[in-house]
């Protein structure tokens, strides 16, 4: 960060009483950048000495960094990204990044879900930008601060493994798909990101369904996490009279195709664990463009910021514990900008599929419990609101996803520096 530390101290001393959320965020960002700067100073200190490196402090404000002989030994080494140690550190960094990002935008996330799922109590707020603030005020007036974070416990339970798996998977897929600078193409980056997103969703999707159902409920007496899980597990669609007798339906079916379709509906599980995967196919379809474009945009923006014409304004010195061939870390504003751009671009392209997925996930809580397919859900949304229905809540989506992606990528990159990977 380009702001001088002494200037920050003078500013704080001049206005001690007013400590805003922005001030706290700025202080946290400055602290994390300080870790990177002080770690990089260890390199300069070692380089300035003779061949026997002197001792360098092993911690910066309580966070460990490489020091002395360890710094000189680790710096310049090529890290084995397939090692268990690397994957554990990368997973820890990714999980912490996901939790930090989700906590930042938790109230906006709940409002967006209420808008997307067509909750009748909040439908009146979806037509304007100020509706977001009014919806937040409505939730706060009725349920207090805890109402703004309803479902957040389930969010953290889901987001930690989701983010950890996503970042670990991306690093692993990159090493297989992009083996050198000559392979660093936009298609390979997109493919690595898409595969990482699909992998993380596969393992964590049931937790996402639980989170959405918790956020969807707005009754005075809301269900607990256990109650929600029990409800989802036991939900079963209502059987229409024509399909009440499966054997008769098969006997009356015309043609092999119709008979096969009827038989498939009969043998498909109607309750149980399958209910935790409502909207899964749509999620995969949406995750491929979202995760692929998100990682592609972030990495491309990072390359632009690191070009010779910009690097003195956008990068920090290389830390002492930096592995070989790792690019120089970006300054806070540049890293946050790269992350924010990645979230905005990815959100725009994948948003219609996200709206369809949300409607499918709450299918057991509204209507007759009929499990809608992708085409049926899309048709229902189009009949209700037209083409604009696929972009309901997109404005709050931008407000949420830009800081979400920015904080996520920023925290992940800074944690990687702290963990020496």
UniProtKB/TrEMBL annotation:
Compartment list: Mitochondrion inner membrane
Topology of the protein relative to the lipid bilayer: Multi-pass membrane protein
Any GO CC annotation of this UniProt entry: mitochondrial inner membrane
Primary location group: mitochondrion
UniProt record, GO biological process: transmembrane transport
Transmembrane segments: 387-412
Solcar-type repeats, residues: 85-176, 184-304, 330-418
Family to which this protein belongs: Belongs to the mitochondrial carrier (TC 2.A.29) family.
Functional note: Mitochondrial transporter that mediates uptake of thiamine pyrophosphate (ThPP) into mitochondria.
Record protein name field: Mitochondrial thiamine pyrophosphate carrier 1
């Amino acid at each position: 960060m380009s702001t001088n530390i002494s200037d920050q101290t003078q500013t704080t001393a001049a206005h001690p009483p007013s400590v805003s959320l922005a001030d706290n965020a700025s202080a946290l960002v400055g602290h994390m950048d300080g870790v990177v700067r002080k770690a990089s100073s260890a390199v300069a200190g070692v380089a300035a000495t003779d061949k026997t490196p002197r001792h360098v402090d092993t911690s910066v404000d309580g966070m460990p960094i490489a020091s002395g002989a360890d710094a000189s030994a680790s710096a310049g080494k090529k890290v084995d990204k397939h090692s268990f140690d690397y994957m554990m550190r990368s997973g820890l960094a990714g999980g912490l990044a996901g939790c930090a990002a989700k906590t930042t935008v938790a109230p906006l996330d709940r409002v967006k879900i209420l808008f997307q799922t067509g909750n009748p109590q909040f439908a009146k707020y979806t037509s304007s930008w100020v509706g977001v603030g009014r919806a937040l005020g409505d939730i706060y007036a009725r349920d207090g601060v805890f109402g703004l974070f309803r479902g957040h416990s389930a969010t953290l339970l889901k987001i930690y493994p989701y983010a950890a798996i996503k970042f670990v998977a991306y690093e692993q897929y990159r090493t297989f798909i992009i083996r050198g600078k000559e392979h660093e193409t936009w298609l390979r980056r997109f493919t690595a990101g898409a595969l990482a997103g699909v992998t993380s969703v596969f393992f964590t999707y049931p937790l996402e369904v639980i989170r959405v159902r918790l956020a969807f409920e707005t009754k005075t007496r809301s269900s607990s996490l256990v109650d929600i899980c029990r409800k989802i597990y036991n939900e079963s669609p209502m059987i229409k009279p024509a399909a009440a007798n499966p054997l008769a339906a098969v006997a009356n079916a015309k043609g092999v195709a119709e008979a096969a379709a009827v038989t498939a509906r009969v043998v498909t599980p109607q309750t149980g664990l399958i209910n935790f995967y409502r909207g899964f196919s749509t999620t995969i379809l949406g995750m491929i463009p979202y995760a692929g474009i998100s990682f592609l945009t972030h990495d491309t923006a990072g390359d632009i910021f690191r070009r010779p014409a910009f690097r003195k304004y956008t990068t920090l010195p290389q830390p002492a514990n930096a592995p070989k061939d790792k690019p120089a870390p970006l300054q806070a504003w540049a890293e946050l900008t790269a992350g924010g751009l990645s979230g905005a671009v990815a959100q725009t392209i994948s948003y219609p599929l996200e709206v369809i997925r949300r409607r499918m996930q709450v299918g057991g809580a509204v209507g007759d419990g009929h499990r809608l397919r992708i085409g049926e859900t899309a048709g229902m949304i189009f009949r209700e609101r037209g083409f604009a229905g696929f972009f309901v809540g997109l404005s709050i989506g931008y407000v949420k996803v830009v800081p979400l992606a920015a904080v996520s990528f920023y925290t992940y990159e800074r944690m990687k520096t702290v963990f020496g990977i």
